[in-house]
């Protein structure tokens, strides 16, 4: 069987050996290794296929792609047969038509013609081929036919009766997802696809198997209740994480788009976006929130303990009047603002412009900047000459991928698909450094599980080992930057201290890892939230950049939300303006952290656009207490969030499917999208709301639509100067510092917390959750058996212990434990895992919002501290 990767490489390489063949009487040359099917396609000739899929290794199961090759007696499967010099191929003839039709008839022996009641009718490949070849009835029948019950695997259903055993699902799960959740069980008539365990499917539910099933055998567990011809497919960008995958929202036709349509499902398309049809569970199944019954639909104004509905005129008049009043009584600095990683670039641009130009204030921020200023507004200071040297395009040629401070595929799942492509294509390798074994399939070559509290020391050991290796064998690659004596001396001193804090076994793995870099060369470092948000984050990020400089590597930062990167680029931080240009106006320069200003009572009015800091801030109590000092709070959101509950005015906003605009993904790709459904009730976009408020307060905001804002961004924001119809790339090069030398950063000290029985609480993020949208996808949550993550709803999430710690506390799997502090109490269920380091406990990210909290286990209390609590 030819290798897909090698054949592709052969087609592309200009210097590859070429062979001459004849296709339907016409001579042509193609690269050696090309299959007959690929050669035909390159020459504009159509050969029908059924089991073949471009992004998978061909299997040759269906025999529909048969062609005639001169000198060969029987038809040849073109998808698995490489060309050979002088080969004479016929792709169409009466005989071939008959042969192909017979192959389809064979498949139909075991495939009922249930098309009228099949979900896939109208988009079924077998149905199309049956029609194309004019097959009107079952010619051959099986002696044995009994209907087999459909398997319910949660989000995925398997109907064996419709399965044609093409094995696409098995191959995509192995080759593209690296998981191998499926296999073929049984022989002959009894063959069927099954899970490898024989039990219910237990996987990441990416749904790739559904997307490539050519018939209706694998389908979504979310019944979408629409025929294919009742839907229109509208291209959009995923509203969840920062990878920015493209897909189609399938809208059940109403009267017209933007009027009556409802999103019925998501389908992927290999031809759009960078993701080649690959999606994760959130992208494929996490769409129900758009039409959630819990969506806010009208402005709400506080009335005592409650919020009551109001019309837009009343709400906007009240806000304008209050803000004008504070400006008169307390001046421009009486305001604070928090923008959104979920809102569009256009939303955030107008929001920031309203705040800085109309209110004349500078204390604006975003959660992405509050959680990790070193990779947000401080990016250019920390990275120096190195910001975002890696793009997804560069993954194509990389040979080594290293997750650092990232839980592998959990953070930005589809990045892993690009990595696996490189592994399949040219033997790239993966390694992972995280505070436990990171999630990545297939298992990384090396896992480097460090102690979270000693993450900086781990980085120092890694750098020290790299420098020793360079001293011994010379530069790791030619582009390694020179090591100055001063930097070397500082590293040496830090390394002697670090050695004591890093396990010996980890030091051995570090040596192995450096050998891997020497073998594979130029790593791509994928730097996750654990590194970006660590209390010593600045020094950690700087040392990852140093490591990349020493090893000729490049760096990609994970981004949690769909527009985390765009929020920074649009200036949602106190010290930068749109385009990451430093704020130089003295009157608008930051006066300290927004939270401190709130605590000091200096912020009289706080405006929060599509963000929920009471849910996301790592010190929820501190933020909540600080909010009590603010006199007037305006919050925009799609749902009645924790922060909404504290607001004086709540304004309902649209989600991405209901508006036009752009998101910027983690590599800087600016992707535009349009509204495809109507928003609920009276919801408006952030840009509409703050454009209108600006006009009421004397600002000259003359935007008719988001396109006008895009044009202004393109005109005024240098790094966004290339936005065209289809978007473009944010160009950071004008901001890059010319200094490429290694730079030293002393780490911020962290608390020596491990005294007595104190435990460190670490967040346990899962691929299935990304608040708040996934909270409001009820079928997905129910099918996956997910706990509700809303802190206020008293659900019982998993609390994961190391086995030794659990034993010391006499805890067994399934026991109940509780966490309590002055602000309340929540209960969880004990899970025991070797992956959790002794001294730490893993709890869901949303629960991990208290720097200090007590664990109550079997009647005994234990002190716990979260990562925020490590800051001195
Ligand atoms: Fe070639 Fe199925 S497409 S054998």
Please explain how this structure is put together.
By secondary structure, the protein is an alpha/beta fold. It is built from 26 helices and 37 strands. The strands form nine sheets. It has a seven-stranded mixed beta sheet with strand order 15-14-27-26-25-16-17. The protein has a seven-stranded mixed barrel with strand order 31-35-32-34-33-36-37. Helix 8 (about 310-330) crosses helix 23 (about 685-695) and helix 14 (about 455-475) packs across helix 16 (about 505-520). The longest helix is centred in the middle third of the chain and has 19 residues, at about 310-330. It is globular. The chain binds FE2/S2 (inorganic) cluster.
List strands and helices in order, with pairings.
Blueprint: H1 4-12, E1 18-23, E2 26-31, H2 36-42, E3 66-69, E4 76-77, E5 88-90, H3 94-109, H4 125-132, E6 151-153, E7 156-158, H5 168-176, E8 182-185, E9 192-195, H6 208-212, E10 218-220, E11 231-237, E12 246-252, E13 262-267, H7 281-285, E14 300-303, E15 306-309, H8 312-330, E16 335-339, H9 345-358, E17 364-366, H10 367-371, H11 379-383, H12 392-395, E18 400-404, H13 413-426, E19 429-434, E20 446-449, H14 455-473, H15 485-501, H16 504-520, E21 524-527, H17 529-532, H18 537-550, E22 554-557, H19 564-569, E23 576-577, E24 581-582, H20 594-599, E25 605-609, H21 613-616, H22 620-628, E26 632-637, E27 649-652, E28 661-664, E29 669-673, H23 686-696, H24 706-716, E30 728-729, E31 759-763, H25 778-784, E32 798-801, H26 803-808, E33 816-821, E34 824-832, E35 840-843, E36 852-857, E37 860-866
Parallel strand pairs: 1-5, 16-17, 16-25, 18-19, 18-21, 19-20, 21-22, 25-26, 26-27, 31-35, 31-37, 32-34
Antiparallel strand pairs: 1-2, 3-4, 3-5, 6-7, 7-10, 8-9, 11-12, 12-13, 14-15, 14-27, 23-24, 28-29, 29-30, 32-35, 33-34, 33-36, 36-37
This protein binds FE2/S2 (inorganic) cluster.
FE2/S2 (inorganic) cluster is lined by residues 49-52, 60-65, 77, 79.
């Amino acid at each position: 069987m030819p290798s897909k990767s090698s054949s592709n490489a052969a087609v592309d390489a200009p210097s590859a050996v070429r062979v001459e063949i004849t296709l339907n009487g016409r001579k042509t040359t193609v690269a050696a290794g090309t299959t007959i099917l690929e050669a035909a396609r390159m020459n504009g000739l159509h050969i029908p296929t059924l089991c073949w899929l471009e992004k998978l290794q061909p299997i040759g199961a269906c025999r529909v792609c048969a062609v005639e090759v001169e000198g060969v007696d029987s038809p040849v499967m073109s998808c698995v047969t490489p060309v050979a010099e002088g080969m004479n191929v016929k792709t169409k003839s009466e005989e071939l038509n008959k042969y192909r039709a017979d192959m389809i008839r064979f498949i139909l022996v075991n495939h009922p013609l249930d098309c009228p009641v099949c979900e896939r009718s109208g988009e079924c490949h077998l149905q199309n081929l049956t029609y194309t070849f004019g097959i009107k009835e079952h010619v051959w029948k099986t002696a044995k036919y009994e209907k087999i019950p459909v398997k319910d695997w949660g989000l995925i259903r398997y109907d064996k009766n419709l399965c044609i055993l093409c094995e696409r699902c098995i191959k995509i799960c192995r080759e593209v997802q690296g998981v191998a959740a499926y296999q073929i069980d049984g022989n002959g008539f009894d063959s069927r696809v099954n899970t490898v365990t024989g039990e219910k499917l237990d996987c990441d539910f990416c749904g790739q198997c559904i997307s490539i099933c050519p018939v209706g055998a694998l389908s979504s567990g979310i019944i979408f209740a629409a025929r294919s011809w009742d839907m229109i497919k509208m291209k959009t960008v995923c509203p969840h994480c920062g990878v920015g995958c493209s897909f189609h929202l399938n809208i059940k036709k109403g009267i017209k788009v933007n009027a009556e349509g409802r999103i019925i499902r998501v389908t992927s398309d290999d031809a759009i976006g960078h993701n080649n049809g690959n999606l994760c569970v959130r992208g494929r199944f996490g769409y129900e929130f758009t039409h959630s019954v819990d969506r806010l639909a009208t402005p709400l104004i506080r009335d005592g303990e409650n919020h009551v509905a109001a019309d837009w005129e009343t709400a906007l008049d009240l806000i304008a009047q209050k803000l004008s009043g504070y400006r008169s009584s307390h001046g421009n600095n009486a305001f604070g603002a928090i923008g959104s990683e979920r809102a569009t670039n256009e939303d955030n641009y107008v929001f920031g412009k309203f705040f800085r130009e109309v209110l004349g204030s500078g204390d604006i921020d975003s959660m992405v900047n509050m959680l990790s200023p070193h990779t947000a507004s401080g990016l250019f200071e920390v990275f120096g000459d190195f910001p975002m040297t890696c793009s997804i395009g560069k993954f194509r040629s990389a040979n080594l991928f290293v997750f650092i401070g990232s839980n592998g595929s959990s953070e930005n799942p589809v990045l892993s698909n690009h990595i696996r492509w490189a592994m399949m294509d040219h033997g790239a390798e993966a390694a992972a450094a995280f505070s436990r074994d990171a999630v990545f399939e297939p298992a990384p070559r090396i896992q480097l599980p460090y102690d979270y509290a000693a993450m900086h020391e781990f980085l120092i050991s890694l750098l020290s080992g790299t420098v020793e290796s360079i001293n011994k064998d010379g530069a790791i690659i030619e582009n390694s930057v020179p090591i100055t004596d001063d930097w070397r001396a500082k590293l040496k001193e830090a390394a002697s201290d670090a050695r004591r804090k890093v396990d010996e076994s980890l030091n051995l793995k570090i040596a192995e890892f450096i050998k891997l870099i020497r073998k594979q060369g130029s790593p791509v470092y994928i730097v996750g939230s654990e590194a970006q948000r660590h209390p010593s984050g600045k020094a950690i990020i700087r040392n990852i950049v140093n490591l990349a400089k020493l090893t000729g590597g490049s760096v990609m930062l994970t981004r949690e939300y769909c527009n985390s990167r765009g929020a920074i680029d649009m200036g949602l931080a106190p010290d930068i303006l749109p385009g990451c240009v430093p704020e130089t106006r003295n009157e608008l320069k930051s006066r300290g952290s927004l939270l401190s200003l709130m605590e000091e009572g200096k912020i009289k009015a706080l405006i929060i656009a599509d963000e929920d800091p009471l849910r996301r801030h790592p010190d929820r109590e501190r933020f909540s207490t600080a909010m009590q000092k603010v006199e007037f709070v305006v919050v925009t959101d799609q749902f009645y969030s924790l922060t909404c509950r504290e607001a004086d005015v709540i304004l309902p906003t649209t989600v991405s499917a209901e508006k036009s605009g752009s998101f910027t993904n983690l590599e800087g790709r600016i992707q535009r999208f349009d509204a495809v459904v109507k928003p609920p009730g009276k919801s408006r976009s952030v840009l509409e709301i703050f454009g209108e408020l600006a006009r009421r307060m004397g600002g000259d905001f003359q935007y008719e639509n988001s396109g006008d804002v895009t044009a202004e961004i393109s005109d005024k924001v240098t790094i966004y100067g290339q936005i065209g119809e289809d978007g473009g790339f944010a160009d950071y090069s004008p901001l890059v510092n010319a200094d490429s030398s290694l730079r030293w950063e002393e780490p911020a000290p962290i608390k020596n917390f491990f005294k007595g029985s104190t435990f460190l609480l670490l967040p346990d993020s899962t691929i299935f959750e990304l608040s708040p949208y996934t909270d409001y996808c009820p079928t997905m949550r129910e099918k996956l058996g997910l706990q509700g993550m809303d802190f206020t709803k008293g659900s019982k999430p998993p609390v994961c212990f190391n086995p030794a710690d659990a034993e010391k506390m006499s805890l067994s799997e399934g026991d109940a434990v509780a966490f309590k502090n002055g602000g309340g109490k929540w209960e969880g269920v004990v899970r025991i895992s070797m992956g959790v380091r002794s001294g730490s406990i893993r709890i869901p990210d949303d629960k991990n919002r208290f720097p200090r909290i007590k664990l109550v286990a079997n009647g005994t209390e234990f002190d716990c501290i979260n990562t925020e609590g490590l800051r001195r």
